[in-house]
From TrEMBL:
Residues 234-285 form the FHA domain. PROSITE patterns: FHA_DOMAIN (PS50006). This is FHA domain-containing protein. InterPro entries: FHA_dom (IPR000253), SMAD_FHA_dom_sf (IPR008984). The lineage of its organism: Bacteria, Bacillati, Actinomycetota, Actinomycetes, Propionibacteriales. It comes from Nocardioides aquaticus.
Length: 352
């Protein structure tokens, strides 16, 4: 196949409440060849649901594309559209979708100028560049999370109920049984929560509504996530151990800028409170408008979504994840030889 110059999310073209069908695809291709590129090579991605909505002629037209190696049919088209667009970086993308739930996996979607959208009117069709814009980090998490619920059947009323609990794996041969609560989402099978690792039934390990997740950023990169169940507190600095998060492996030779006890985060019924532990190089709470206030020693401040904590002059930042369903209990690195201290989680009936 020759390198495609236009990736088409065919599902978004052929679907329409009033006038669906393959003729929309034909009209769009005509217009593209006339106005954008006479020699354009199209590659189409279509989802199963849209394929079943095409009439015989439409299905035959799509089959001809497939036979020529110019199209693929999948259950969920969006990720494949983005994968193809990534694979062919000079291709444009023709779609009416903004792929908000894929911005975490395909970071280049933010502000991309490769996307074109279309509008059909009774008199014809027009094409224009799509304004992809950038979605805030916290919102990217939420959209991505919504998409991750569906394959696990968690987007149902009973699945959502499941998300309100913490779950523990009690299968001794499963790696997930090491943690007080699994960090990943469970599977919902007929109302039973199954382990994402071993698929055995999970045990209820307490209320998850107030669990929050702290993101650790270095140089703008998301390097670690720390789940904090309600009632737990974690000290951050140099050194591992119970209820401690060790920054040394992440900051390398700049570790001397971090105090042994630098800052602490506490989850008080779902609110995250931060305090400085008398650190040498200090910490600051940076508000949404950019205003930065030093965090005084041993006085707890509330950290809100869209704000962040910066320590040691910006060396490391901490943000709350925008995830609506943060979950799991923090387990310190096994290298420290200490397993997570008791938290408010009900104890799973783990044999060990
Ligand atoms: Zn398991």
């Amino acid at each position: 196949m020759r390198t495609p110059t236009v990736i088409v999310d065919v599902s978004t073209v052929v679907r329409d409440r009033v006038d669906p069908g393959w003729h929309r695809m034909d009209a769009l291709i005509d217009l593209w060849r006339r106005e954008m590129d006479e020699k354009a090579i199209f590659y189409g991605v279509l989802d199963d649901a849209s394929w079943y909505h095409l009439d015989d002629a439409g299905q035959a037209a799509f089959a001809a594309w497939q036979a020529a190696g110019r199209a693929t049919r999948v259950r969920w088209a969006d990720p494949l559209v983005c994968e193809n667009a990534e694979r062919y970086p000079h291709a444009k993308v023709l779609t009416s979708d903004l792929y908000r739930d894929l911005r975490r996996d395909f970071v280049w979607l933010q502000n991309s100028d490769r996307f074109y959208t279309f509008s059909f009117t009774p008199t014809g069709v027009s094409i224009e560049r799509a304004e992809m814009g950038a979605i805030r980090d916290e919102d990217v998490s939420q959209y991505g999370e919504a998409a991750s619920l569906k394959p696990k059947c968690l987007n149902t009323p009973e699945g959502r109920q499941m998300l309100r609990r913490e779950w523990a794996c009690t299968n001794p041969s499963c790696p997930s049984s090491q943690a007080r609560a699994i960090a990943d989402l469970p599977y919902n099978r007929n109302g039973k929560a199954l382990c994402p690792d071993c698929r055995k039934e999970l045990g209820d390990a307490g209320d998850a509504a107030d669990t929050r997740e702290l993101k650790v950023l270095i140089g703008g990169n998301d390097v670690a996530h720390i789940p904090l169940v309600a009632g737990s507190r974690i000290a951050i600095g140099r050194g591992g151990g119970e209820d401690r998060f060790d920054l040394r492996p992440l900051v390398g030779d700049q570790q001397t800028l971090v105090s042994r006890d630098h800052v602490a985060f506490r989850n008080l019924r779902g609110r995250i409170l931060v305090s400085d532990l008398g650190s040498k190089n200090g910490s600051a709470l940076v508000r949404e408008d950019g205003q930065s206030d030093p965090i005084p020693a041993d006085v707890e401040q509330r950290l809100e979504l869209h704000e962040f904590v910066s320590i040691a002059g910006g060396l490391v930042q901490f943000r709350l994840s925008g995830k609506r369903y943060a979950r799991g209990a923090y387990v310190p690195d096994r290298g420290t030889g200490v397993i997570s201290s008791p938290t408010v989680l009900a104890s799973p009936q783990s044999p060990a």
